[in-house]
Amino acid sequence: DTAVSQTPKYLVTQMGNDKSIKCEQNLGHDTMYWYKQDSKKFLKIMFSYNNKELIINETVPNRFSPKSPDKAHLNLHINSLELGDSAVYFCASSLTSSGNTIYFGEGSWLTVV
Amino acid sequence: DAKTTQPPSMDCAEGRAANLPCNHSTISGNEYVYWYRQIHSQGPQYIIHGLKNNETNEMASLIITEDRKSSTLILPHATLRDTAVYYCIVRVLMKTSYDKVIFGPGTSLSVIP
């Protein structure tokens, strides 16, 4: 079983659309994350949730809205998609919010055309 | 900004040891050094971490200098499947309750047959 799973793996959509990426972890972890990896391959943290509460928000545009219905799920909703949103989005989780190994999903490839 | 510097790329012959250096001269006393790698088109994978003692697991060894300002990740017998980008990370403690993992550009390791 995949520890951190995210869907869809690939997504191609037009500018202006609204889309969501879902993430689930079956590790019993308290903390979940969203990272973005752009075309230059830099991996940047976007959000972190601990027990469904937002603890890190890296000045991401408010078109990006994470939602954590429970601590095993952290979904990323993106409104009014722009060309610059094209990237690979990685979900991750860790046992707690500090000092624990972070486990990553396989990524969701988003292409905005 | 990442608190680490790494060479952008390295080559290693298959079957030989790969030694990947990392400088973290501003590391604080309670900050751990973590190593991850990212194989093409996959999510980052945890390798090893340490505070001040050398560490070894089934994947690699981590050598941390006594002053903790630098470290070396050693893959004892590199294989073609070890070709990846290797990230050296210092976890930045934001508050007592959470830290932030900041990825730098990493070292692109090519294992050559």
Extended strand count of chain B: 11
Q: What is the average per-residue confidence, as pLDDT of chain A, rounded to a whole number? A: 92
The residue fraction in helices of chain B comes out at under 10%
Beta-strand content bin of chain A: over 45%
Helix amount of chain A, in percent? under 10%
Pick out the low-confidence regions of chain B: none
Number of helices of chain B: 0
The pLDDT mean of chain B sits at 91
Radius of gyration of chain A: 13 Å
User: What composes the largest sheet of chain B?
Assistant: 5 strands, mixed
Distance between the termini of chain B: 35 Å
Portion in beta strands of chain B: over 45%
How many angstroms does the end-to-end distance of chain A come to? Answer: 33 Å
Give the H and E element order of chain A: EEEEEEEEEEE
Approximate shape of chain B: globular
| Shape verdict of chain A | globular
What is the structural class of chain B?
Answer: mainly beta
Order of helices and strands of chain B, N to C? EEEEEEEEEEE
Question: How do the strands line up in the largest sheet of chain B?
Answer: 1-11-8-3-4
Characterization of this structure:
- The complex is a heterodimer of chains A (113) and B (113).
- Chain A has 113 residues and is an all-beta fold.
- Chain A is globular, with a radius of gyration of 13 Å.
- Chain A has no helices and 11 strands.
- The model of chain A has no long low-confidence stretch (mean pLDDT 92).
- Chain B is mostly beta strands and 113 residues long.
- Helix content of chain B is 0%, strand content 49%.
- Chain B is built from no helices and 11 strands.
- Chain B has a 5-stranded mixed β-sheet, with no helix packed on it. A 4-stranded antiparallel β-sheet of chain B has the order 2-7-6-5, with no helix packed on it. In chain B, strands 9-10 form a two-stranded antiparallel ribbon.
- The mean pLDDT of chain B is 91.
- Chains A and B meet through strand 5 and strand 10 of A and strand 4 and strand 10 of B.
